[in-house]
Design a protein that fits this description.
By secondary structure, the chain is α/β, with parallel strands linked by helices. It has 11 helices and 8 strands. An 8-stranded mixed β-sheet has the order 7-5-6-4-1-2-3-8, with helices on both faces. The longest helix is centred in the C-terminal third of the chain and has 34 residues. The structure holds uridine-5'-diphosphate and magnesium ion.
Amino acid sequence: MLLSIVLPAYNEEQNISNTAEVLGELLAGESIEYELIFISDGSGDATFQEIQKAAEKDSRVKGAEFSRNFGKEAAIFAGLELTSGDAVVVMDCDLQHPPEVIPQMWKLWQNGAEVVEGIKESRGKESLAHKLSAGLFYRIMSRLIKMDMNASSDFKLLDRKVVDVLLRLPERNTFFRALSFWTGFRREYVSYEVRERQFGESKWSSLSLMKYAVTNATSFSTLPLQLVTVMGVLSILFSMVLFVQTLVRYLSGTAVEGFTTVILLILVIGGFLMLSLGIIGHYIARIYEEVKGRPKYIISRTIGDIRKNKNEERQRI
Ligand code: UDP
Ligand code: MG
């Protein structure tokens, strides 16, 4: 039984060798057969060279480099595609996801679990703004997709079956964390404490997090579109009240004033209209991206003997 570990890495030159060593020692100690698949997400530093060095030391370390930065989601999916294990663990390569949890996940998998979710016990050290916005994001997302997303993370173990299902999904805008919920299958949970990052710094800015939130919310739910209908209904109710008032005023001969109402109406309706157009526009953009059907990522180089046959199969089609 082979365990594949997928590690997305964006400018993580300081982390690679340490992570490869820590994981290697741990898994060898537990006598679990493994392969480590580092995906360098278009790093501008020596991440790829570091993966190469680690691979020279241990042939079970493999890797790939993207032609540019495609984002963590793409890196996770590329990693999944290149694995050949019977079970696959996805984790951050900064060791914020504690490796000691992996043997627990492995045991649960051996006992029949098909997905083992890592659940965050605490969010580790984060700024207050980050904590609040993440809290809000997860609250909204949980509502939108009707799954409890709080405390969920990208740290999980998937059975080969689940990996194959995820890889067959044709969509480009993926949200790994929610998709693995969506697939169903028998799941178990392990909780873990988020560690502090040892080297380097977080790759997420507030802006990139906001974009991530909007993209994921819209790729997983059409509720915002239905919001447009709600706004329309509200406008109509409001205008019915004003309609009656205006008519009564007109009939009673006191219809001269009313500029305030007109201005307010124009503002409110204009605001609703533009917001609605924005929401619809966002979905059209998503549809446009999906229709273009471009690949999620482009691999420029690989290290070690990784499962390439899947890619070749796809190219032939
Ligand atoms: N990452 C990536 N591509 C990106 C941004 C991040 O592959 O565009 C990787 C990063 O190298 C790390 C993981 O995603 O292994 C989590 O990123 P980070 O530690 O910066 O996020 P945080 O832990 O602060 O949420
Ligand atoms: Mg991190």
